[in-house]
Write a structure and sequence with these properties.
The chain has a single domain (about 5-250), classed as TIM Barrel (Alpha-Beta Barrel). About 30% of the residues lie in helices and about 15% in strands. The chain is built from eight helices and ten strands. The chain has helices spanning about 55-65, 85-100, 115-120, 135-140, 150-165, 180-190, 215-220, 245-250, and strands at about 5-10, 15-20, 30, 45, 70-75, 100-105, 125-130, 165-175, 195-200, 230. The strands form two sheets. The chain has an eight-stranded mixed beta sheet. Strands 3-4 form a two-stranded parallel ribbon. Helix 1 (about 55-65) runs parallel beside helix 2 (about 85-100). The protein is globular. The structure holds iron/sulfur cluster. The site of iron/sulfur cluster has 13 residues, from loops.
Length: about 270
């Protein structure tokens, strides 16, 4: 049985980020199967929440690792973390034991669910993903594995914006398919009014190519009416050494030291 905890990894959004994978399944468990996912195809398509890792196991792993130098503990991993039905209690548990602020990276699929929004409201920072301004582009880029509607997802995000006490970041991944949608996406971002917009392109190894820096800069220009906007090419990534390289590589394939030694971890921005 592998570990639920991985990293810390250098995150362009969160600094030194200790990963918690509350799914910890062998293959990817997700409600989407995004064109750009670096974890390969979705092995376990799931639309319903359930418990994957019991809280008792999380507690014993967190207590075993002791104090960790990190800026955030982040719920992410091999799939969509809000599918874990015990996410809310796990957030409080991790904060209490680690004494770190808690972040969650979500693909937003379950934002229409009031229970999910309640769980996410317990985090210090939530990063919600939106890659499309309309249903057809949503289906093309995110390839939802269940009956998700972009319209309902947007309503859920806006409700959460009004409820959550922590920071809300909006992450948008741009690839060849949706690069013409930047103006519409900027309008969506204005409607949501997040604390930060993260404009992304897949820098980690995956099935699609990233957009070049000049194209991402032009996309950023469309977001000029929003306050804090950062692109994947501008962000600084701290140097870190994971506690357990094998567990970290399982969640971030295609990364890791290229040569012997520390600090060689490359960090891409994908979910
Ligand atoms: S990128 Fe994230 S949301 Fe998309 S398929 Fe991969 S794990 Fe799921």
């Amino acid at each position: 049985m592998g570990s639920v905890i991985y990293g810390p990894v250098p995150s362009w959004r969160l600094g030194r980020s200790l990963g918690i994978d509350l799914l910890s399944t062998r293959g990817k468990t997700c409600s989407f199967d995004c064109l750009y996912c670096q974890l390969g195809r979705t092995v376990h398509p799931l639309a319903q929440r359930r418990e994957f890792v019991p809280l008792a196991r999380l507690v014993s792993e967190l207590e075993r690792i002791g104090p960790v130098q990190a800026d955030y503990a982040t719920f992410s991993g091999v799939g969509e973390p809000t599918l874990a039905g015990n996410l809310g209690d796990a957030i409080d548990t991790a904060r209490r034991i680690l004494r770190l602020p808690i972040a969650v990276l979500t693909n937003s699929s379950l934002m229409p669910d009031e229970g999910v929004r309640r769980d996410l409201a317990r985090a210090d920072m939530v990063v919600v993903k939106l890659d499309a301004p309309a249903e057809d582009m949503f289906r093309l880029v995110n390839r939802p594995t269940g009956p998700y509607s972009l319209d309902e997802i947007l309503k859920g995000i806006k409700l959460f914006r009004g409820q959550g006490k922590g920071l809300l970041a909006l992450q948008m991944m741009f690839i060849r398919e949706n690069r013409g949608c930047a103006a519409l996406m900027a309008k969506l971002a204005e409607d949501i009014s997040p604390d930060e917009v993260q404009i992304n392109t897949p820098l980690r190894e995956c099935a699609v190519a990233p957009l070049p820096p000049e194209e991402l800069a032009a996309i950023k220009d469309e977001f000029r009416r929003l306050g804090a906007v950062v692109t994947a090419y501008e962000a600084r990534r701290p140097r870190v050494t994971p506690l357990n390289a094998a567990e970290t590589l399982r969640r971030r394939p295609g990364e890791g030291p290229q040569e012997k030694g520390e600090g060689k971890w490359k960090h891409g921005p994908q979910h």
